[in-house]
Amino acid sequence: MAAVALAIRLESDGPILFRQEREGRHGRPFRIHKFRSMVKDADRHGPVTSMADPRVTHVGRVVRRFSLDELPQLFHVLVGEMSLVGPRPLLPGTTRPEERRRLDMRPGMTSLVEVRRPHLLSWDERMMIDVEYVETWSLALDLSILMRTIPAVLTRKDILDAPRP
Question: What is the pTM of this model?
Answer without folding.
Answer: 0.85
